[in-house]
Amino acid sequence: MIRRMVLVLGATAGLLGLIGFFKFQQIQAAIKQGASFQPPPEAVTTVVARQERWPEIVHAIGTVTAVNGVMVSADLPGVVREIHFESGRRVGAGELLIELDAAQERAQLAAALAQRDLDRLNFERARGLLEKRVISQADYDRAEALLKQAQANVGQVEATIRRKQVRAPFAGVLGIRQVDLGQYLAGGDPIVPLQSMDPVYVDFSVPQQQVGRLHVGDAVRVVGDSLDMAGAAGRVTAVNSVVDEGTRNVRVQATFANPRGRLRPGMFVDLETTVGAGAPVVGLPASAINYAPYGNSVFVVEELKDPKGKAYRGVSQRFVQLGAGRGDQVAVLSGVKVGEEVVTSGVFKLRGGAAVLVNNQVQPGNSLTPRPSDS
């Protein structure tokens, strides 16, 4: 019985050892196969790096302001008797907007006119009597002074009546009416905003390091999707003489034509202006940049060698210093040499030393002035 158990155990141990031997051989073969495995090359697109000179462009956010813009208000207190405008309408300079009740002033004007007429008759009589030497020169001068005083009183009352007729101080577009018929207005109460809409100012700020290269007359362009005004051009008309102590920026004013009134005071627009010729850069498609927290990089296609010394086309990773962007391109200031072949798509699946297969039949966007198909 014991002999049989020993034989069974020995046979079992031999079988397990044989199975273990075969498994060991399989694992060793798999390790050798894995060590010699080469992943297939990744399909990528490339572009040859070329040196370009981009002009130095300053981007800024501007605020639209009116050349002339006021809140039309009442000059004198009174009750609104007539309203001669509609909200949002274009008006000319001097156009009548509202009339305040001036019944009392008109009565005072009638009395002043009557007194003026009387003083004029007395002055005419005094002049005739002076010629006949019936009255003294002092009486004549007194009559003349009374006439001038009466004429001044008439002018004063007429001026008061005119001040109760509120008119547009300049041509422009009215806002929303803020008064109603019969409403009492105190002096200075708002009536309606008035803005001149063509041309308009756009105010923006530039860093103090760049203001020395910005001059009156330089072109300023609207970029992006600002109010469907992309491409609209204006001119710098003023540069502030004071630097803001908080931001160390200088305020600049540009003037834009606005015939259709799309730019309204208070709006903001994206602007750019050229302030210099700029330094030489290598312009690459933005898709070529591998952005990462530890540093931005690109992949350059080169002739590499595997561990066995066999040559193949692969990529090496280069860290780069980036500059400004224009359209689909990004300026590379350092890290890429002119003439090197840089991967432009498929960057996310690459690593240093990876084999690649270049296929440039379809290229990513690489235009300085892209025009999307749905724009």
Could you please describe the fold and organization of this structure?
With 375 residues, the protein is α+β, with helices and mostly antiparallel strands. Among the domains are: 42-54 and 279-358, conserved putative lor/sdh protein from methanococcus maripaludis s2 fold; 58-67 and 195-276, Efflux pump adaptor protein, beta barrel domain (Elongation Factor Tu (Ef-tu), domain 3); 102-163, Orthogonal Bundle (Helix Hairpins). The chain has helices at residues 2-35, 103-131, 137-163; strands at residues 42-48, 51-53, 56-66, 69-73, 78-83, 90-91, 96-100, 165-167, 172-174, 184-185, 190-195, 200-207, 219-222, 233-243, 249-256, 268-276, 280-285, 297-305, 311-319, 321-326, 329-334, 341-345, 356-358. The strands form five sheets. A six-stranded antiparallel barrel has the order 3-12-15-14-13-16. It has a five-stranded mixed sheet with strand order 19-18-22-1-23, with no helix packed on it. Strands 2-17-21-20 form a four-stranded antiparallel sheet, with no helix packed on it. The longest helix is centred in the first third of the chain and has 34 residues, at 2-35. It is elongated and about 170 Å long.
